[in-house]
Amino acid sequence: QVQLVESGGGLVQPGGSLRLSCAASGTIFSISTMGWYRQAPGKQRELVATTMSSGSTKTAGSVTGRFTISRDNAKRTVDLQMNSLEPEDTAVYYCYADRVVSLEGTHVEVWGQGTKVTVSS
pLDDT per residue over 47-58, tens digit each? Predict the structure, then answer.
């Protein structure tokens, strides 16, 4: 069974930094896309950043220049380095993986349980 487990959320002051990590578990042969989405209270879930197995990335305009996504294909992990955090970044952050080829077959749109990030003074 394929699972995504996140870590690294918490409370941080405006201007601070946090690093989120996500690890995929299971008998996995490949993962096409990995990334992060977030959902703020009362808002829809939105893309933060994603990365393909080729290394190409997509980042939301609201976090460009502040957040950096990185991936380790061999370890099946994806990290999100968040700098210069703003109160507007407060949300539950979800790890995401698409087209996960595992022993059980190909899984589409796999989600982690979410980790809460609160930016507040």
Answer: 999 999 988 999
